[in-house]
Write a structure and sequence with these properties.
Elements lengths: L2 E4 L2 E4 L6 E5 L16 H13 L4 E4 L9 H11 L2 E7 L17 H13 L21 E6 L6 H17 L3 E5 L5 H10 L7 E4 L7 H9 L3 E4 L10 H13 L6 E3 L20 H14 L1 H16 L6
Parallel strand pairs: 3-4, 4-5, 5-6, 6-7, 7-8, 8-9, 9-10
Antiparallel strand pairs: 1-2
Helix pairs in contact: 1-2, 3-4, 8-9
């Protein structure tokens, strides 16, 4: 029986329901000054809106050191009724101050941190140093990240560590592809590290809406995570609907997932902003169903995330 690790414990993969595959419930980063959000009551209210929109599970892709609050997250999940799968891993360089420990610790230490999150429990202090004070909340996947059109030395080290942690733990890897770049390079690194592309979800690929590139990536087995729903400053949602249709026409329905990636307090209704974390279920999915029908939407929002998030047996 395939299972997924949520902040409340293991659940059957088939019980995830409709999945928003990229969110942040708590976040604090030096690259986003003044845009942090860490109020448990406000974020519970935000997740209640998500539940009302028809979303059953969110995947929180906040990485080590960026404000994860595991015990609060487990409480909010229970209060809102939304299941949450929380990541471990490391982001691109820009999200860590120059003196942060992720820049200077050895690879074996960086790996131990991720394995502790996956096997022992996430530190409620969100790893203020590479010594664990574990909670009972476990991570359910790994996230890694690269810069725009380049992978720095430090990013490559952390990417390789993240891939190794996933390989050893049987979980999937979500990748921050800055503006949809370097996807093939990341898959090459994953394969060199012994991780199959079908265990990798490439985030932000809709920022680089090249259907031929996407078909090539899907052909390698990777998941394409279209996660800027409602972000009109990038492009109208009608363009995203068209992109999804193109990938469906090329036979890659089983490689798509969707998310909203709310990463700023100004995007949250609980903080007086918008479009809100519920924009995926509230606005986009009904529109997508009208265009492509119920069955493909169910594959994209239910079947694919359940398959990707399921922990694999380690040989």
């Amino acid at each position: 029986m395939a299972t997924v690790q949520t902040v409340s414990g293991q659940v059957e993969a088939g019980s995830l329901g409709v999945v928003d595959a990229h969110e942040h419930v708590f976040l604090r980063s030096p690259v986003l000054p003044g845009e942090h959000f860490d109020d448990p009551d406000k974020m519970c209210a935000e997740l209640c809106r998500v539940a009302d929109s028809g979303i059953d599970t969110v995947v929180d892709l906040t990485t080590v050191g960026l404000g994860r609050r595991p015990t609060h997250l487990a409480d909010i999940s229970q209060r809102s009724g939304v299941q949450v799968v929380l990541a471990t891993g490391y982001h691109r360089d820009a999200h860590y101050a120059a003196d942060h420990w992720v820049h200077h610790e050895a690879p074996d230490v960086l790996l131990d941190v991720l394995l502790a999150d996956l096997r022992t429990g996430i530190d409620d202090r969100d790893w203020r140093g590479p010594t664990c004070v574990p909670t009972t909340v476990l991570a359910g996947l790994v996230k890694i990240g690269a810069s725009y059109q380049r992978i720095t030395t430090g990013e490559r080290q952390r990417i390789e560590v993240g891939i190794e942690a996933a390989r050893l733990s049987g979980v999937g890897v979500a990748v921050h592809c800055e503006i949809g770049t370097l996807a093939h390079d990341i898959l090459d690194i994953a394969e060199a590290g012994g991780l199959s592309p079908d265990r990798v979800a490439l985030a932000h690929m809709d920022r680089n809406s090249d259907p031929d590139l996407h078909a090539d990536l899907a052909g390698r087995g990777a998941y394409l995570l279209y996660d800027t729903v409602g972000r009109i400053k990038y492009r109208p949602d009608s363009d995203l609907v068209t992109l999804i249709e193109r990938l469906l026409d090329s036979g890659h329905t089983d490689r798509l997932m969707l998310g909203t990636d709310v990463g700023r307090r100004g995007m949250l209704r609980a903080y007086g902003g918008g479009p809100g974390m519920d924009v995926l279920g509230r606005d986009f999915l009904p529109r997508l169903r009208r265009r492509i029908g119920d069955q493909p939407v169910d594959v994209i929002t239910r079947t694919n995330p359940a398959r990707f998030l399921a922990t694999k047996d380690i040989p």
